[in-house]
Amino acid sequence: MSGKIIVIDLEATCWEGNPPPGEISEIIEIGICVLDQATGVIDKNRGILIKPVHSAISPFCTQLTTITPDLIGKEGISFEEALHILGKEYQAGQHAWASYGMYDKNMLQKQCALRHIPYPMHHKHINVKELFRQVTRIPRKVGMSQALDILGYPLQGTHHRGGDDAFNIARILRYCLNHSEAAIE
Ligand code: AMP
Ligand code: MG
């Protein structure tokens, strides 16, 4: 194993069904932590809260994520500022990155395109959901909490909060890297 991998988990505005007329699902939290492949240390577990501009935090969204309109009002920054942090503090363009499934990569690409902001991430993306299936040889892909159950790892923190999800995903990724030949360059 070598190098650092940035683990990302996004939270977004959501509703029980489709968005209300005029609203779209937008990123409201970028959860992030860094896995050092050489040492196995998971560092900088953090959630960057983001103010949505084309949608509101619904009661359903608060119920799922614990993120309230009040919290976003107090601590949220713009999507542009959040991406700036990824580039400056995490050198996101220079390290491989990982997420659980393809949702986070697709969402990030879509929102960057919509806002005409350069996509900040490295081209090397690891789908931890798929990697976990391969390494454990289970017949089908499972959700993050089920993967933790399979490993006997208690879920740490609050499920559906970006920072905590990113940390738990990093633990699954570390298991995968320790149980496969591949190092991620
Ligand atoms: P997660 O990383 O599993 O916390 O999910 C990321 C985002 O997907 C959430 O912030 C929601 O926008 C959406 N999402 C996840 N689960 C649900 C659900 N059961 N119903 C609606 N949206 C969801
Ligand atoms: Mg999440």
UniProtKB/TrEMBL annotation:
Domain Exonuclease: 4-182
Pfam families: RNase_T
CDD domains named in the record: ERI-1_3'hExo_like
Keyword entries, A-Z: Exonuclease, Hydrolase, Nuclease
SMART domains: EXOIII
Enzyme class of the recorded protein, top EC level: hydrolase
GO molecular function, one term: nucleic acid binding
EC number of this enzyme: 3.1.-.-
InterPro entries (alphabetical): 3-5_Exoribonuclease, ERI-1_3'hExo-like, Ribonucl_H, RNaseH-like_sf, RNaseH_sf
GO biological process: DNA metabolic process
Keyword Repeat in annotation: no
PANTHER family per the UniProt record, alphabetical: 3'-5' EXONUCLEASE ERI1-RELATED, 3'-5' EXORIBONUCLEASE 1-RELATED
Name of the molecule in the record: Exonuclease domain-containing protein
Species name: Ottowia cancrivicina
